[in-house]
Amino acid sequence: MRVHVFAFGVLKDWIGSQTAGVELAEGSSVAVLLERLRSTLPASPAAGILGSIAVSVNAEYAQASHILHDGDEVGLLPPVSGGSAARTANPLDESRGDANVTVVLTRERIDAETLVSAAKSGEDGAVVVFDGIVRNHSRGRRTLYLDYEAYEEMALRQMRELAAKARERFGARRVTMVHRLGRLEIGETSVLIVVASAHRSAAFEASRWLIDTLKQTVPIWKKETFVDGAVWAPGEPFPAEVALKSAEAPHES
Do 70 and 90 sit in the same domain of this protein? Predict the structure, then answer.
């Protein structure tokens, strides 16, 4: 059987291509695939990092024991770095008709004022906004600009799930999450989260939980360009429920 492997972030640079087809025996697992990749990249930094990544199969997080099938799309996901929807050009939107959830990926500037205004309703007592912006320095180096990329289908799905969980967990009435992709200049908004609720405590708590969880689990990566070079930003470790757990790789037949 043949599976399609998609590498993101720093792995894409090290492996040399974002996508590749890999032939495996029927019934092979994610663990078998990773071992095959390690054997083909013995001298690459990618071979060492494969043990600390997360893996997706058909845009859903998967474990090492997951059995693959012909045509599956496997994402190799290094730790992620977490950045008017109606007025953007060709936004990618996964709201799916839920009027109280808006999630968008866009390559256009984020119109925060319009999005905040659209989130408000007469039944709300509070609207909390997190506006993440590009700063001009990082880790003691002067930043020129950032580039964001995403596993777009999976990122939208994860963002929508987070928004729904925030509404259920904290009692928020409405959640808007918008993230920029592509080249961002200093001072531009990379990610905007707007939470509307009847009570301020719910809005504050949901907003903080959303941005913290987005930075850990949503497959979006950031490349920082400094005056003296460029690097992929080191991401936060994946939470236990999505981190790749080791499993003994069965031998291919």
Answer: no
Do 41 and 104 share a domain, yes or no? no
How many CA atoms are closer than 13 Å to the CA of 142, on its beta-carbon side? 3
The tens-digit pLDDT sequence of the chain (253 residues) is: 999 999 998 888 777 666 789 999 999 999 999 998 888 876 667 666 777 789 999 999 999 999 999 999 999 998 886 433 333 334 455 455 578 999 999 999 999 999 999 999 999 999 999 999 999 998 889 999 999 999 999 999 999 999 999 999 999 999 999 999 999 999 999 999 999 999 999 999 999 999 999 999 999 999 999 999 998 887 777 888 887 875 544 444 4
Query: What is this structure's pTM?
Result: 0.81
- For residue 164, the domain's CATH number is 3.90.1170.40
Helix (H) or strand (E) holding 170: helix 152-170
**Backbone dihedral angles phi then psi of residue 163, each to the nearest 5 degrees:** -60, -45
Tell me which residue range forms the domain holding 141. Answer: 85-232
- Tell me, yes or no, whether 32 and 153 share the same domain: no
